[in-house]
Design brief:
By secondary structure, this protein is mainly alpha-helical. It contains three helices and two strands, in the order E-E-H-H-H. A two-stranded antiparallel sheet has the order 1-2.
């Protein structure tokens, strides 16, 4: 904000433009999509493209998969839905929609990464003792 004299203030964004609301909605939608929709999308991807489920690796093998690593299609099935969402939303040309899409992507990516980290850990390394 700049002031040109007493009582006069110029603002970069006019009041009531809705920019803050669109940004907030984008963040909330990104968090919800990442938490509730990412895992079902991955499960559907794995089901319909016939991705083989990897075996469970022994306790303590978090850094090495040995001679039998999970297939590449398994890793692609986790990255694919996230790439589709990010590329689809980043390519939105309309400026007000970008004010929703960019915060949505910035909230979706870390939430989806946390879901993927947890679920991959459960699939590959969890064995009931």
């Amino acid at each position: 904000m700049t002031s040109d004299g007493p009582g006069r203030v110029d603002e970069a964004t006019p009041a009531g433009s809705g920019k803050g609301l669109r940004i907030s909605l984008g963040v909330i939608a990104g968090l919800l999509l990442g938490f509730f929709c990412y895992l079902p999308a991955v499960i559907l991807w794995q089901h319909y493209w016939g991705v083989p489920q990897p075996r469970v690796y022994p306790h303590g093998s978090f850094t090495s998969f040995g001679s039998d690593p999970p297939p590449a299609s398994y890793w692609v099935s986790w990255a694919g839905p996230a790439v589709v969402v990010v590329c689809g939303l980043v390519s939105v040309p309309w400026r007000p929609a970008r004010q929703v899409a960019l915060p949505l992507v910035c909230a979706f990516v870390p939430m989806a990464a946390m879901v993927a980290w947890f679920m991959i850990g459960m699939e590959l390394f969890f064995t009931p003792d």
